[in-house]
Amino acid sequence: MKRIAFIGLGNMGLPMSRNLLAAGFEVIGYDLSPRARTAAAESGVELASSAAEAAGQADCVITMLPTGQDVREAYLADGGLLAASRPGTLLIDSSTISSSVTVEVAAVLRAAGRRMLDAPVSGGTPRAQAGTLTFMVGGDAEDLAAARPLLEAMGQKIFHVGGNGAGHTAKLCNNMLSGICMVGTVEALALGVANGLDPAVLSDVMRNSSGANYALDRYHPYPGLMENVPSANGFEGGFRSDFQLKDMRLAKQLANDSRTMAALGDLACEMFAMHCRNGHAGLDYSSIIKMAMELPGQAAMTTPAPAGIPAE
Amino acid sequence: MKRIAFIGLGNMGLPMSRNLLAAGFEVIGYDLSPRARTAAAESGVELASSAAEAAGQADCVITMLPTGQDVREAYLADGGLLAASRPGTLLIDSSTISSSVTVEVAAVLRAAGRRMLDAPVSGGTPRAQAGTLTFMVGGDAEDLAAARPLLEAMGQKIFHVGGNGAGHTAKLCNNMLSGICMVGTVEALALGVANGLDPAVLSDVMRNSSGANYALDRYHPYPGLMENVPSANGFEGGFRSDFQLKDMRLAKQLANDSRTMAALGDLACEMFAMHCRNGHAGLDYSSIIKMAMELPGQAAMTTPAPAGIPAE
Amino acid sequence: MKRIAFIGLGNMGLPMSRNLLAAGFEVIGYDLSPRARTAAAESGVELASSAAEAAGQADCVITMLPTGQDVREAYLADGGLLAASRPGTLLIDSSTISSSVTVEVAAVLRAAGRRMLDAPVSGGTPRAQAGTLTFMVGGDAEDLAAARPLLEAMGQKIFHVGGNGAGHTAKLCNNMLSGICMVGTVEALALGVANGLDPAVLSDVMRNSSGANYALDRYHPYPGLMENVPSANGFEGGFRSDFQLKDMRLAKQLANDSRTMAALGDLACEMFAMHCRNGHAGLDYSSIIKMAMELPGQAAMTTPAPAGIPAE
Amino acid sequence: MKRIAFIGLGNMGLPMSRNLLAAGFEVIGYDLSPRARTAAAESGVELASSAAEAAGQADCVITMLPTGQDVREAYLADGGLLAASRPGTLLIDSSTISSSVTVEVAAVLRAAGRRMLDAPVSGGTPRAQAGTLTFMVGGDAEDLAAARPLLEAMGQKIFHVGGNGAGHTAKLCNNMLSGICMVGTVEALALGVANGLDPAVLSDVMRNSSGANYALDRYHPYPGLMENVPSANGFEGGFRSDFQLKDMRLAKQLANDSRTMAALGDLACEMFAMHCRNGHAGLDYSSIIKMAMELPGQAAMTTPAPAGIPAE
To answer: Are D6 and D20 in contact (CB under 8 A)?
Structure first.
């Protein structure tokens, strides 16, 4: 496979395309946004006039789209990727959507002689740029073998998780867990700081104890304790809180549908929803620390003590 | 008992004192706030220069104070109510505090020959004014019998709940439950309205079904559906959210100390804490509806949908 | 409308059919269960050999089925109620299902010239027998007008909540709220009892205060305080915990889909799921009290205090 | 400091004493349990007839006791460690208790010319035996310097967290967080497995993504995926669930007292309480996985689907 159609050239799709180009693949791309198309063209991506046109010329199609509804339409609508692609084409969806949509789309594609992988990613824009994404792949092993050179151009770790849909299921499990651990970390830091501990010292203790987790180790939410993370940059960049919320809502739906206990997952989801409603949707998800504590140099958000005589 | 010392003449204490006066009792009062003292004097309350002076002249002392720490100091500090009161005096604490403080204070008072009741109230300022408070009384039956004429001057329902501390325990149980039901009501209304239901019609349905509760019946949180409640008045008046939070924190502590399941109570408490931190501490506790939904004529607080290509 | 097809003759459908007969309607019925058919025949219901046969002979069809999938199939499958019913027939679905299924089914029916109401009920078997159900109706006002004589034969209160789907939405809102209030009530009772209060006295206090709700007033979960409720009968009868769980899962899904805050609703749902997993699925939902406290005369389920020296 | 009094010779105290002996210290010990005393004597610990007798002969006293109440009494009661110890003695409390008790005890000790460190540990019995505990120390730097040789005989990492009480605060923060991450991990695994993923593959994915945490890395709760952890041994050994619960209750109290957000912490605490009430108090805390999923080879604990026609 030499010629790749890339549909969706935004914060993730563009750097991924660049890494494909750098690895010697030809990339013909499309995005609904003119601005994204311009940026892609400047990076060397050949532009198509539609997703279908791109797909019609490619050995392999990669999609990176916002929602399950977008994916269903892109693949199955009249003039969509199914219709435009040649039999035998390998289609790879790297969006984060519910596994049920993937299963449904993949079944239609297979019935029409196409091959499909769901291959959502972990790592965000920084690791998309660095070519060090993690791919969680659902689908047939032989299709993954065919796709591996492409995926290795964009990522560092490639996990074959199971059949179609398994990639998305794994992604949702992971992001539910990372949301829980982030909120838990924030609560533990707030508890320590409110009782006089230095957040750096406390973090060092917990990092070396049973509280160790990714947020403490590599994505610290407290500003000033770690470089090159969103908390060092006013929570800009990174993984937006409303994307985290979207993933946790998908996980909640999956848990509800499969009658699985997700009490902490549900609650952490609700907390990210409140955080977004409080105006922080566009900030990195580690900004949930603002819900738990005042940060140095930021406006106070305190509970004033009741004054006077309590009524009721 | 004819002559009553009333300590704490605020939003609750002042109207309670007025009702005692109207029933023919003499009231000698004290409050730390000069403004409260002035208002009390204008209502016919005789002013003392200190709580101790008031207590020294009275057959019965009623306290209405903000916190357990205030109650402990008012009663037990040097020159406090214990020292100032005569043996045999009946002391009634109508503050909302933890039952453990009451038990501790009552034990000291009894050892010194005083009598004590804990008698927290339900009903808020409106029912304090109307003389229709509910009293939840802990202590000896004979002391309650002696106090009954006073309590009946201020309230409509008087429950003898058990020994000292039981009044406060009952109050905390009730307020934990009312907090849970209020948040639950708000969530149910938000769910219906988001899916196209008229809040008035939905409220009517639930009021006549298994969802019926005090919030729907007599304290509706949705503006415009009920008169003479805080939601009809921009959530002014009523029972401040930070007082609700204070009571729920006391209930949480009691549940934790007694190893009792309070999962919904804990979570509702956290939600009122967030609500207060969001700047609504001074609004009536039914304003928690703002956390769940946009209200007509109020600024939006929405979760914008993620735009563009999802990262991570 | 004189001749009614009734599909689903179980614990709810059978007594509802009897009340239709008692009011002078003809009822031709069907149920997949032979036992249910026999019981219906003994009550005077004319039996059909299939749902379709029943529907083909009736002016109005009422369905009372377990799940949304059952409803979709019963109406829309080959040889289903749509195919079997005559144009102009009024179809009334009294199952508790998600509103989205109702909206979907109603659209198909209308396009084929049928009329449809969603009319889920509140009240359980006792009120189905007594003919005092509450109906929450979604659909056109004129269709409700036509159905009203039937509904009044089976119920006491009939609420027109909105268009198709609104009945189910209202039902889910109510049942989410009733689940929350029940768990809250149970937590408040457990807190009081653990701290020495008499549950009867505490209930009396809260029933007269801001904690008042349906569980305290008419469906008390603590055994021995109220007659003719499931707690008086070993939690047999009433509304099974797994049905409560089913409704709360539907409500959770609706809240998640509509991005509505349902933090307490989610958690109460998880608690009913745990309760069912603990072996209480078949008990009335007020048996959730077993999760919070030991009941008199029942085996203990306590947290033993840690003994010895704590590790870690 | 050469001669150490060790009070509390249980699962933690005994192996810690052995490591002190192995490092050349003299240890004179005491425990209320005759069985613990016998085991200690067999290990070479010199036995005293009381805690006071041991303390009277030592340069340094280490306590390892179950609760804050035990600690307060051991130190401050008549004939307690304060009275028995010589001025200048260094007392080290390695129990896990609330920081407020430590602050109170330390103030009394200092006023009487004693020195005190709070030095709770992380690691459990296995790391106590291996001499690789983590110490979180609160108190003066010079006292820690004096204690360091002892602590290094028992542990691998020694963190100076702050003044007296800070050690306990850090411990509680960490254990609240580890409880949250464990429950979150269990929920994520249950979600994946219920949707067809292999728990080993899913764990590998999450360990390499943003869900990485101590439970996945070093303390896996799913049986069969990791050796030398409690899940490999029927959840025997390790850190008992009721000890985890005790620590989370202390953390909850601290959060409530300091008005800190601990929504996930509170809920995880309630879940461990349910787990203990369900009969698992004595199992390692990773056994909380039983709440979320059926484990291979264990009896099912499922939610049966509702059968028949739903009432209410």
So the answer is: yes
A300 interfaces chain D, CB cutoff of 8 Å: no
Q: Which of C210, C253, C270 sits opposite A261 (nearest CB)?
A: C270
Task: Determine the average pLDDT of the residues in B149-165.
Answer: 96
Q: In this predicted model, what pLDDT tens digit does every residue of B190-223 receive, in sequence order?
A: 999 999 999 999 999 999 999 999 999 999 999 9
Segment C254-280 shows an average pLDDT of: 97
Residue of chain B nearest A244, judged by CA positions: B312
Residue D238: the pLDDT is 85
- Position D123 scores a pLDDT of 84
D256 CA to chain B: closest CA distance, Å? Answer: 7
Residues of chain B found within 8 Å of residue C253, distances taken between Cβ atoms: none
CB D235 within 8 A of CB D283: yes
Q: Is the pLDDT of residue D220 over 80?
A: yes
Picking from C125, C148, C164, the residue at the C-terminal end of a domain is: C164
Q: Do B263 and D263 touch (CB under 8 A)?
A: no
Residue A211 structural domain:
169-292
Residues of D in contact with C291 (CB under 8 A): 274
pLDDT classification of D105: cutoffs 50, 70, 90: very high
B171 in catalytic set: yes
The nearest CA of chain B is from the CA of C34 a distance in Å of 33
How high is the pLDDT of residue D302? 44
What pLDDT does residue C307 have? 46
Nearest to D267 among B249, B252, B263 (CB): B263
Q: Which amino acid belongs to residue D228?
A: N
pLDDT at position B259: 96
Cross-chain residue pair A252–C249, CB shorter than 8 Å: no
Q: Do C261 and A270 touch (CB under 8 A)?
A: yes
Residues of A annotated as catalytic (active site), given as ranges: 171
Global pTM reads 0.93
Residue numbers in C near A274 (CB within 8 A): 261
The complex scores an ipTM of: 0.92
Whether chain A has a CB inside 8 Å of the CB on C263: the answer is: yes
User: What are the Cα distances from residue C89, in Å, to C20, C69, D171?
Assistant: 18, 22, 69
The answer, for C186 touching chain A at a CB cutoff of 8 Å, is: no
Sign of the CA dihedral running C161, C164, C165, C171: positive
* pLDDT value at A303 more than 60: no
**Rounded Cα–Cα distance for residues C44 and C53 (Å):** 18
Contacts of D254 in chain A (CB under 8 A): 191, 195
Checking if the pLDDT of C304 tops 50, the result is no
Which DSSP helix (H) or strand (E) runs through B241?
A: helix B241-257
Domain count, chain B: 2
Q: Rounded mean pLDDT of A83-99? A: 93
CA-based radius of gyration for chain D: 22
Minimal CA–CA distance to D248: which of D165, D174, D176?
Answer: D176
Whether residue D12 lies inside any domain: the answer is: yes
- What does the longest C-alpha to C-alpha distance in chain A come to? 77
The two tokens of residue C260 are 């509505």
Q: D57 to chain C nearest CA, in Å?
A: 23
Indicate the helix (H) or strand (E) that contains B136.
strand B133-138
Q: Which of D247, D303, D311 is opposite residue C281, by nearest beta carbon?
A: D303
Q: Can you give the pLDDT at residue C1? A: 77
- Whether D122 and D38 map to the same domain: the answer is yes
Choose, from B157, B171, B252, B290, the residue flagged as catalytic.
Answer: B171
Is residue B303 in a domain?
Answer: no
Q: State whether residue C254 sits within 8 Å of chain B by CB.
A: yes
What is the residue-averaged pLDDT of chain C?
A: 93
DSSP lists the bridge partners of residue D135 as: D121, D158
- Domain with residue D11: its CATH number is 3.40.50.720
Interatomic CA distance for residues A250 and A258, integer angstroms: 12
CATH code of the domain in which B239 resides: 1.10.1040.10
**Number of DSSP helices (H) and strands (E) in chain B, helices first:** 14, 9
